[in-house]
Amino acid sequence: MTTKKNSSYELHYFPIHGRGATSRAILSIAKVNWKDRIQSFEAWPQDKPNTPFGLLPILTVRDSQGKMTHTFPEAEVIESFLAKEFGFFGSNAEEELEISIALSLTTMVYNVWVFHVLHSLGPVREQVLRSFQEFSLKHWVQSCEKLLKANGSNGHFVGERTSLADIKAAVVLDTFSGLKDSAMYLGEDIAPELRKVKQLVDKTPGYEAYRKSSAFQEQDETTRQRVVPWIEGFDMTRAHLFA
Ligand SMILES: N[C@@H](CCC(=O)N[C@@H](CS)C(=O)NCC(=O)O)C(=O)O
Fold first, then answer.
1. Residue 119 within any structural domain of the chain
2. Is residue 175 one of the residues assigned to a domain?
3. Where in the numbering of this chain does the GST N-terminal domain appear (predicted)?
4. Domains in the chain: how many in total?
């Protein structure tokens, strides 16, 4: 852990929350030496060919001497790598398995949202959104509530410590809170355990501070300008769009 604390981390991503949100949350909760490397949209056509798959985010890790030890893409791989670096992936194989199960539920619902709901347009969108809410979202909430109750209703999926399962669920719940019908699917009466997870994660000192930072507010603003206009009915006064 000491050597990890001496490393530095740079997250290369656009000035939106999107697929950088969970990694930024992990890095700020871990309170390590990290920075955002913000990719401007204007320079992206020139920079894109220099990335492994023409996509962001990319994480770069340097040791205490500033020597690069890793640089790699893929948001979920980055999130798992960081969670393991900082002790958010359990302390034994059993905990890691339980965290992976909860994480899989959240990754699934998030990807259905991104690849089905966000990508659907026009009259089809209303139907896709309804089916997402009725099946994927309901299933996610019910499954999470069950796991969280089984763990003692303490605001954590596994044991008594914050894990990647908690952080990812908090980030994803934040996004879904902006849905027009969020009260029907995510209200206090329906998702009390998930709401507890989000409250705990959001109150973690490093993350609470990051959420108030100018960087985070800029991500909100860019999201409001560039992403929300093509998502009908999404309310950013209730949520941050982490997609
Ligand atoms: N599988 C990749 C997908 C990354 C991705 O789609 N990134 C988008 C932003 S969220 C991107 O870089 N878009 C720029 C482009 O398509 O040129 C991951 O999970 O990291």
1. yes
2. yes
3. 7-90
4. 1
- C-beta of 15 in contact with ligand 1 (< 6 A): no
Q: Is residue 189 part of a domain?
A: yes
Q: What average pLDDT values come out for the chain (243 residues) when binned by 10 residues?
A: 74 94 97 96 96 97 96 98 98 98 97 88 86 96 98 98 98 92 94 98 96 94 79 69 59
Determine whether 24 is exposed, middle or buried from the number of CB atoms within 10 Å of its CB (0-12, 13-18, 19+).
buried
| 75 touches ligand 1 (CB under 6 Å) | yes
**Ligand 1 pocket check for 18: Cβ under 6 Å:** yes
What is the domain range of residue 171?
A: 93-204
Cβ 5 vs Cβ 31: under 8 Å: no
**Residue 34 CB partners (closer than 8 Å, separation 6+):** 8, 9, 10, 11, 27, 28
Which pLDDT value is given to residue 49? 97
Q: What pLDDT, on a 0 to 100 scale, did the predictor assign at position 237?
A: 72
Instruction: Give whole-number Cα distances, 152 to 85, 127, 147, in Å.
Output: 26, 37, 9
CATH code at 142? 1.20.1050.10
- Does residue 47 form part of some domain? no
